[in-house]
Amino acid sequence: MKPTYHYMLMTNHMLLQKKLLTDLKETELTAGQPKVLDYLQDHNGASQKELAEGCRIEPGSLTSILNRMEEKGMVERRMLGGNRRTYYIFLTDKGEELLGIIQDKFKKLEETAFRGFSAEDRQQFMELFFHIYKNMTEEEA
Fold this sequence. Notes:
The structure is a single chain. The chain is mainly alpha-helical. It is 67% helix and 7% strand. It has a 3-stranded antiparallel beta sheet with strand order 1-3-2. It starts with a helix and ends with a helix. 13% of the residues are buried. The model has no long low-confidence stretch (mean pLDDT 93).
């Protein structure tokens, strides 16, 4: 079989998810939660709408993910400025601790993925991959 973009992307995504969740087994994090923690690293206090858009998660799915994360003490929802319609999501101390763990796991997975690549090849790959991302997101708009 000739490797195609879509097949390789789906296969690599599945491998990344499987390896990540296996490596995070002791944390009890489930699918979707590492992405939320990672996003909150740079957007702590984002609204649920911003979080859904930033993580590319359907709002209904995000609500379920956040409910479980809140039950486990990873995040907390707050209303700000008297706005009762919008909740803002903040990392708790436990969420910050888990974020450190997932960052370490992401770094190790990337090191594995790019094993044998020169720094220049890695940078070029990331630039091309980001270009594909921009093409795909422009299609949505």
